[in-house]
Design brief:
Number of strands: 12
Strand content: 15-25%
Oligomer: single chain
Number of domains: 1
Order of helices and strands: EEEHEEHEHHHHEHEHEEHHEEH
CATH topology: Rossmann fold
Strand order of the largest sheet: 6-7-8-3-9-10-12-11
CATH class: Alpha Beta
Mean pLDDT: 89
Helix content: 25-40%
Bound molecules: adenosine-5'-triphosphate, magnesium ion
Shape: globular
Number of helices: 11
Structural class: alpha/beta
CATH superfamily: P-loop containing nucleotide triphosphate hydrolases
Length: 331
């Protein structure tokens, strides 16, 4: 296979906190190919945004690295970082607050270009006009201010700003979560149009597996800082391997998954897991109806099965064993 556009290698990030602190992200690894959409799903607090910030080099990992097109982003010299930073952009959930309210829309969109010292003022204005057209806004909108626009329109502005540096990768962190269903559909369609036009790779982050499965080629499921399952979107949703993925799928009809509680997931009642607790075994096992004795003591590693799917669960690694399939750590 071609060298991946993005190669995330065993990223870990711990925040200061009680005791040993909180592992927000633990040994997360995945790759992203050009033009591909990877969905990243998991409950509130599982580490999705922290992983996004690590990818953009906005925070420094304790361990691991981010490699873009064969060049190590993490810890690269300043100049190299600056160049690599152009290649990964992000769109947040709350577009209005991610825009500067005192700057016009045009200045907001052009800001990344200005910060990177690219183009003349005239060139930046031309780039803004072209982008406004691409995202379905009018050229005249560049003179208006963010508060004059609706949530969906602000998201179009944020997308335009994310594209002005011609990135290869765009991270959408809950970018459509706050939008009404019909507006959400419009923004998703715009995202897919732009992806096809520019061959963009997307990391699409959401707590809502229902939305993630509609847009993703592959999906990574996160639980308390770890990727516990990763595989093609269709297969993962049709036949989930990890009990947590299965629980998320059962929870899809719940109107607002952010509000769901342990019991809504149809999981065993038990001590709700906390990332700051020292857990020698699988982080999910206190809630798992299918736990085995060893789950309490040994953490299962994300293992790639011969089908190409990956899962961190002994239910599958032992099946591997009996059928003689090979295991390796991360793909
Ligand atoms: N700057 C920080 N300092 C300390 N702890 C942090 C910091 N940022 C995040 N955390 C902790 O790291 C964990 C992961 O948080 P993160 O925001 O990445 O989760 P998330 O999956 O994006 O959640 P949500 O779905 O609510 O956006 C949480 O326990 C959070 O409290
Ligand atoms: Mg988040």
């Amino acid at each position: 296979m071609a060298e991946p556009l993005l190669d995330v290698r065993a990223l870990s990030k711990r925040f200061a906190g009680s005791g040993d602190g909180v592992f927000a992200v633990k040994e997360a690894s995945f790759t992203l190919q050009r033009g591909e959409t990877m969905g990243l799903v998991g409950e509130s607090g599982c580490g999705k945004s922290t992983l996004a910030r690590l990818l953009l080099n906005l925070i420094i990992p304790d361990q691991g690295s981010v490699v873009i097109d064969g060049t190590v982003f993490t810890g690269a010299p300043r100049r190299a970082q600056r160049k690599l930073r152009r290649r990964v952009q992000i769109v947040f959930q709350d577009a209005l607050s991610s825009l500067n309210p005192r700057m016009t829309v045009g200045v907001n969109i052009a800001e990344p270009m200005r910060l990177q010292g690219l183009g003349t003022a005239t060139e930046r204005r031309a780039a803004v006009r072209a982008l406004l057209d691409l995202v379905g806004l009018r050229a005249g909108d560049s003179e208006r201010y963010p508060h004059e626009f609706s949530g969906g329109q602000c998201q179009r502005i944020a997308i335009a700003r994310a594209l002005i540096l011609r990135p290869d990768i765009v991270v959408f962190d809950e970018a459509v979560s706050a939008l009404d269903v019909s507006i959400r559909a419009q923004i998703l369609r715009l995202m897919l149009d732009l992806q096809q036009r520019f061959g963009l790779a997307y990391l699409f982050i959401s707590h809502d597996l229902g939305v993630v499965r509609r847009v993703s080629d592959r999906i990574a499921v996160m639980y308390l800082g770890r990727i516990v399952e990763l595989g093609p979107a269709e297969e993962l949703c049709r036949a989930p391997l990890h009990p947590y993925t299965a629980a998320l799928l059962r929870a899809i009809p719940i109107a607002d998954p952010r509000r769901m509680r342990v019991n809504d997931l149809g999981l065993t009642e038990g001590e709700a897991a906390r990332p700051d607790k020292r857990m020698p075994g699988c982080a999910f096992q206190p809630r798992c109806a299918q736990r085995l004795p060893r789950c309490a003591h040994e953490p299962p590693a994300l293992a790639t099965l011969s089908t190409g799917r990956s899962v961190a669960c002994f239910l599958h690694s032992s099946a591997d064993h009996s059928t003689g399939l090979t295991r390796s750590d991360v793909p």
